[in-house]
Amino acid sequence: MDGNSxxxxxxxxxxxxxxxxxxxxDAVLGGSYRLFYRRPVHLVHGRGQYLWDADGxxxxxxxxxxxxxxxxxxxxxEAVHRQMQELNTHTRYLHRxxxxxxxxxxxxxxxELGPGRARAMYMCTGSEANDLALRVxxxxxxxxxxxxxxxxxxGTSELTSGVSPALxxxxxxAPTARLVPAPDAYRTGAADVGAWFADRVRAxxxxxxxxxxxxxxxxxxxxxxxxxxLPGPAGYLAEAVDVVHRAGGVFIADEVQPGFARTGEEFxxxxxxxxxxDVVTLGKPMGNGVPVSGLVAREEVLAAFSDRxxxxxxxxxxxxxxxxxxxxxxxIRAEGLQEHSLVVGSLLLAELRVLAQxxxxxxxxxxxxxxxxxxxxxxxGTREPDGPLALEVLEELRERGVLTxxxxxxxxxxxxxxxxxxxxxxxxxxxxALDDSLTALGR
Amino acid sequence: MDGNSxxxxxxxxxxxxxxxxxxxxDAVLGGSYRLFYRRPVHLVHGRGQYLWDADGxxxxxxxxxxxxxxxxxxxxxEAVHRQMQELNTHTRYLHRxxxxxxxxxxxxxxxELGPGRARAMYMCTGSEANDLALRVxxxxxxxxxxxxxxxxxxGTSELTSGVSPALxxxxxxAPTARLVPAPDAYRTGAADVGAWFADRVRAxxxxxxxxxxxxxxxxxxxxxxxxxxLPGPAGYLAEAVDVVHRAGGVFIADEVQPGFARTGEEFxxxxxxxxxxDVVTLGKPMGNGVPVSGLVAREEVLAAFSDRxxxxxxxxxxxxxxxxxxxxxxxIRAEGLQEHSLVVGSLLLAELRVLAQxxxxxxxxxxxxxxxxxxxxxxxGTREPDGPLALEVLEELRERGVLTxxxxxxxxxxxxxxxxxxxxxxxxxxxxALDDSLTALGR
Lengths: 443, 443
Prior knowledge:
The structure is a homodimer.
Chain A: E1 5-6, H1 16-28, E2 35-36, E3 43-47, E4 50-53, E5 58-61, H2 74-86, H3 96-106, E6 118-123, H4 126-141, E7 145-149, H5 158-161, E8 178-180, H6 185-188, H7 193-210, E9 215-220, H8 238-246, E10 250-254, E11 279-282, E12 293-298, H9 299-306, H10 319-334, H11 337-358, E13 362-368, E14 371-379, E15 384-385, H12 387-399, E16 402-403, E17 405-407, E18 413-416, H13 424-440
């Protein structure tokens, strides 16, 4: 969940249209609906890495990994349009698209999750994928208890909310779950963050089992987005995954955030760590905005569930969803977006490190590919987080035509996660806007 | 869930392409994937109420309420295409579509669920809508226990699966849930099926509370689709809903099946009964195949959840989903589909009753609008259900170019639920195909 979202009552100084729309939202939508920014942004158009508001103002989008190829990418628009004119129906009839896509998807996985050794299923949202993943993990282990990190977010369903502490105190964590601190190299100061994290996982399993709950698995996104964007050194997750496996649990790699070429070095976030998950869940960027999600699991892991419980998702895997998903995979390859993410992400990281030399409030800069966290602090020595400053920076960036958000337990980490269309030229735009924002705020 | 779905190993006598596709599915998709028909249908095209297979053979679709306006309806195709070219992003920025649609949606509700008294939220699947509905019901009542019918199906998530006995014995019903028999006027022979059903609900509440579980609510689709398509006399549900309310519970109307003009008499299934639900869930036909779902609830009911627990659905309510949903509402009005459903549904019912005079195996024919159940029995006197015959009829119908499915605890009820594009001319096609199928089977 994101720290810079507001209810309508926070808004003031709005133009008439923005005020009217904000009031209409407040009147007819459920109270859960939140808006970004004190003066909400009324968007009407998107293209590539850019968004336009109703006044024709252009924004550089540094937040949306859903429109991962870029907003309104023509390959997805056309693939969906063509398939929608032909046929869109459920998976109890035969159709080639779901099979062609699955072949293509499994080919991106490590051999242990590849063709002949893993199987795929399709849903519509990351929450649905994670809900099923947790059920699969329970079925194969006979366990009940999951481990997640202290700011994790894995979904909106009842089951996934129970392992999503980012939802806050109003949503209880499942009594069988245990939370572990995320592997934050900056804040823990651990010399070996992998060993540090594995120790926490080991202790949580022991605590869980001592209270009579059988361990089912660890669920984590390998970049720990909600915990503050913690890519860490590639490979460090391997030790924790090993602990999970030795305790008889499964590792669920939630790729909703780091998947689909985002982290640059590898196509999947978990692959950066050289680990093989038992279950992989896919979401947000999978259809470039079309609601499609998926689950890939080792054959024997999935069978423990599928042999016993029917599962049918009405819209899941339909020809239009699969056309969108196929266009995404094809375009990532055709446009070389994984390498682009690596190259432009590295450039951005380097420029942000230069920026940090000019602004004492930048405590840490870290990233993998085009997924970057910039951590703001009151004092570099004490590393005291500065969440209020981060919120002010967001507002200043918005005034300078850059949209993004914050993450982490203290809301002090700028989450820089643009569409992969984000180009070399945009690095300068973003860094200049950040520089000017921090200067304007006297920091 | 539907009774006529098979694993690939059941298939024989397939042409080469069908066999190849079936084997590919079996190799790469999870074991949960099932196919309709012994010889699966390989579809490539759809238009209106018709579907075409790879050999160019046309089928009359008498099953799909998802493509409710008709397959590939141009209004939806064009609305989605236009919006996909403009913008598709999440609800933390302002956008008009979600507000215009919500105004239009709430105007279809009874005054107690209309503007100023109810609020809407949007997700991607009926399962997500029902999962949230159950959580809302728990939040507002402080209760835990739900009542559902003995063959109900409300979703694929962990929480909704717990009130979905149609999933079979592999999926346990939630320990806090209670099941009641559906209001089946044909099989119970109850003179007043409303009083009969209300008695069952009353007893289930008493049983639940005597075991220490506080009652949260009743969840039901008002046509009891999975229980065998039981429209019953309009109004009969009112007594049970009254029992629920007097016991402090909420009534969740699952409109995934009967909603959006399907039952003809009213726009919503619950409205046939003159009841006002506390929560209404929307799904399948809402976007004519685009994954969009929703929840409408009385303001104070929803607030009990929303004031405490954050909820954000990444794809829910996005401009493309809302464009599809708007095109559906607009087209239902523009094409007069509610009245069409009533008129053509009544004609179909009348013709099926004539058919029943020629075939002793037809035990009952019932329906509301274009949602019809035809119940097959071994003997009209004993009403012994004939599930095996129903499966044979499905296969015979498929040979005659008609696609449909079965429902009910005995799998003996043909579920006739075509796209609303189903026309007067199609009544004759369907009835003739049924007549010929029963004759061919010697019944």
